[in-house]
Amino acid sequence: MRCSFVHFGDVHLGTQQYDCPERLNDFGRAWLFACEYVANARPDFAICAGDLFNRFTINPVTFDQAHAGLSMLREAGVPIVDIQGNHDRTRYGEAKSWLDSFADQGLLTHLDVLTGPDGVRLRPVERGKHHGSYVEWSGCRIVGVRYLGASTERVLRELQPRLEEFGNDGAFTILVLHAGIEGIVPRVNAELTANSIEPLRGTVDYLALGHLHKHFTTSNLAYNGGSLETWALNEWSWDRGLLHVEVDTSQPHPVTFRLIDVPRRPFVVVQLNVDQYESPRALLRGCFERLERERARLLADQRPVVFVTMRGRLRFGQEALPINQLEDACRENFDPLVVQIREEYDPRDFATEGADDDEPIDRAFLERSVLRDRLASDERYAPYANQLATLALDLKERALRGEDGPRLLEALRDSLDRIDGLAGVIPPVEGPVGIER
User: Fold this and answer.
1) Predicted pLDDT at 203
2) What value, to the nearest 5°, has the Cα angle with vertex 391 and ends 97 and 330?
3) Do residues 249 and 282 both lie within one domain?
4) 379: left (phi over 0), alpha (psi -120 to 50) or beta
5) Rounded (5°) CA angle 388-414-152
6) Spatial contact of 215 and 181, defined as CB atoms under 8 Å apart
């Protein structure tokens, strides 16, 4: 049996990164590039492994982008399956998602297993329908499982006997799953390990993963293309794109693939160790030299996202730091789409900054200092100590004003999503089933 398909995921349509409308368009352009590639390549089918959308609520522009891409695939005659990721899952208490809506229109096939007290059950997609647990196209059986978080391993164990019931019928079995594997991205608490997927070998021929935004393969069984655009700052240098997969079951190694790069917005990331600069003038000169070197690596018409991060311990007063001049230098060199100067000094160096032994310590200052220092003592959270301390105090104030649990949970999720680089360091925030928001 021979066939081909294109596997991708983590499109995150609707991401207006850094509150910049053009970044929303960047994510849309990456999606439309993927759809155009599939439409032109004409594989037997396509797979999106979750997180087509960045949020469960989408604006009209995001809807138009999704509809245009899916319509392009339908016109080309290439069917596509999708599963629900942790970003595009429904609100608690709501039964229908945007994936269901597009499936109702016949623009995609939405796959998911049935779970309940009796374990996992599989329901085939009926002819003319676009909902079910598995579909059979071009000699392949494609099974889909929504994002399950900490329950992923348990559900896979319960799924294994259901897959074995198909027997050796010659179908090439693809399992689509929105989950990560430990060890791919440092300090990310992934849902699976390399050992936990080994029992699938023999019943699953290709494990199509989403969730981690980095391209990887594991044990000639699990494959992940990565995100299409740069969703977080720490991901800007990762390989990622579309996996164009060829299957030939007559070969000893039936799966081969090509990683198709997706054009994306360039990022310029400059990290300055402020310890080495004895004056604001020296720091400004050092930053300008770094920016000039980075400029030479870009094409003339590219407008990048520019981040300058200053770390270490200042050798002069923070009030003398030439932030405005640093921003001007970035704009002069790049005409950037976005420019941000980040001060991420070691919070432990400033634990008592501003406190006078002869004056009473301000309560708010003390709370913030204690929270920041405790977070900074854990290397996982140290780079985000200031932002997480601010978040904790904001949630406290909201609670004191009488905001209820669902609103606090929503505020927590939204704030964590906006902290670049934090995805995976803190597990997704879950809420009790059935909560009304």
Assistant:
1) 95
2) 90
3) no
4) alpha
5) 95
6) no
87 & 215 share domain: yes
Q: How far apart are CA 210 and CA 226, in angstroms?
A: 7
Residues 316 and 412 in one domain: no
How far is the C-alpha of 259 from the C-alpha of 92, rounded, in Å? Answer: 36
Same domain, 81 and 162: yes
Domain boundary among 261, 283, 306: 261
User: Distance from CA of residue 237 to its chain's centroid?
Assistant: 14
66-114 pLDDT per residue, tens: 999 999 999 999 999 999 999 988 776 677 899 999 999 999 999 999 9
Same domain, 329 and 225: no
Pairwise CA distance, residues 397 & 418, whole Å: 19
**pLDDT tens across 223-248, in order?**
999 999 999 988 999 999 999 999 99
Cβ atoms of 13 and 31 within 8 Å: the answer is yes
**Are 303 and 336 a contacting pair, CB within 8 Å?**
yes
Q: What is the DSSP letter of 214?
A: S
DSSP labels, 95-115 = ---HHHHHHHTTS-EEE--EE
Report helix, strand and coil shares of the chain as percent, to nearest 5. 35, 20, 40
Rounded distance, CA 338 to CA 332, Å?
A: 13
Encoded tokens for 344: 């991420």
Kindly state whether residues 183 and 279 are assigned to the same domain.
no
Give the whole-angstrom CA distance, residue 202 versus residue 8. Answer: 23
By the 10 Å C-beta count (0-12 exposed, 13-18 middle, 19+ buried), 288 is classed as: middle
Q: Which of these three, 294, 317, 345, is where a domain ends? A: 345
Pair 229, 245 in one domain: yes
Q: Are 335 and 196 members of one domain?
A: no
Report the number of distinct structural domains present in the chain: 3
Q: How far apart are CA 419 and CA 232, in angstroms?
A: 8
CB 251 within 8 A of CB 236: no
Domain that holds residue 414: 351-437
